[in-house]
Amino acid sequence: MLKQPRGAAARTRFKMWHRLVGSALEHAAEVSEETLDFQKLFLVQEDADDDDSTSLGGALAVMQRRWSEGFKASDVADLVNLVAADAILPDNTLREMKRDSIILRDFLFHAPTSSSFVATPRAVGNLLKSHVEEPVRHGEETLVLRKRQARDGVLTYSVSVSRK
């Protein structure tokens, strides 16, 4: 891990700790022909109903379901603000949008917000950046928020899913 570029993806959400300590311990275990995988250990620990990881898992599941090909912070802000809800939608679609909006709003902004609250793409982008490359278990899947910068400089996000 220490030979990787400074911004390389860590295998846990504790990026600096994994880079300096965890990867060294994993390497030492590998040399002595043992197995040590902090990503798996942390995911098992999170299964004990950690509110933060449950909330992150739910939000990532919404993002993955809604935007499987990728999304921008403005897409998330629009859903949080229910921008498309002004259109005529079937009741079940509107209910689903409201549910997803609440899940994302609660995850990103934690505190109750007033009815006049408006999420901005910049605020959403800043909040999403802090969760990039954090693996979290959601049901039988491990979800990870990824980001990439487009040629025009706009950050786009996606959620990768692995089933184990």
Description:
This protein has a three-stranded antiparallel beta sheet with strand order 1-2-3. It has 164 residues and is α+β, with helices and mostly antiparallel strands. The mean pLDDT is 80. The chain is 48% helix and 13% strand. It is built from six helices and three strands, in the order H-H-H-H-H-H-E-E-E. It is elongated, with a radius of gyration of 18 Å. It has one domain.
Q: Which helices and strands appear, and what pairs or packs with what?
A:
Layout: H1 15-31, H2 38-46, H3 51-66, H4 73-80, H5 91-109, H6 121-129, E1 136-138, E2 141-149, E3 155-163
Antiparallel strand pairs: 1-2, 2-3
Helix pairs in contact: 3-5, 4-6
Short synopsis of the structure:
Helices cover about 50% and strands about 15% of the residues. The protein has 6 helices and 3 strands; from the N terminus they run ααααααβββ. α3 crosses α5 and α4 packs across α6.
What keywords describe this structure?
about 160 residues; alpha+beta; three-stranded antiparallel β-sheet; 3 strands; about 50% helix; about 15% strand
Low-confidence stretches: none
The total number of structural domains is 1
Question: Overall mean pLDDT score?
Answer: 80
Residues in β-strands, percent:
5-15%
The total of helices stands at: 6
